[in-house]
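for the writeup, i need someone to sanity check this before i put it in the appendix. the sequnce is what the collaborator sent (i think, or maybe the updated version? ugh). structure was predicted straight from it, no edits. if anything looks off just tell me and ill rerun, i have time this weekend
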Amino acid sequence: MLSTLATILLFPTLVTSGSTSYYAYSIQEQSWISISGSSNVSTFECYSNSNFTKGIIHVNTNEFGNTFDFSDALMHLEIESFDCKNPLLNKDLYKALGAKENPNILIELQNAEFLPTKNQDQVSGYMNVSLAITINGKCKIVNMPVNWIKANETDFRFIGSYDINMTDFEITPPSPAFGLVKVNEWITINFNLAIKASSPNYADIN
């Protein structure tokens, strides 16, 4: 299945202005995604141990080559793949996020716009992305900045984070340890993704 965050690999070195194209990607093993937050007693960060995927993404580029619209760019992130290093917090987090009824967090990339950079060699910069995030069966459109770093013509890294309020998704913050610990309603989704990108073979998209 396609990964939304993985599709943020398409910046000007890979696309042609005013074009419609397909691109193949794979997320490398050194990548990670986490959910972090705090409670009345401590902070926590829960890392996903999901196997990262590869796929093909469809992208439309505007005439200036700095704005992209995406199709079929959807990431399924299994809620129970997150490990908080605390069995009680794990259990309560899964329950709070509605893992039984909706086992995945869905993240769909809608569009991205690359921001002007003073970096003359174009090896790093920032872009604004629009995402549709679905948790507990509830969808919210968010806009967030993402830092991109180019290692070479096919290898890139994308780093970002976004704060969400659990109540926006009708989620009651978990209370592990029989309610003695109160988790704050704000949590942060963090990602650091190493991406390998290329043009796919024609047979791969038919």
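The chain has one domain: 5-205. The longest strand covers residues 138-150.
thx in advance!!
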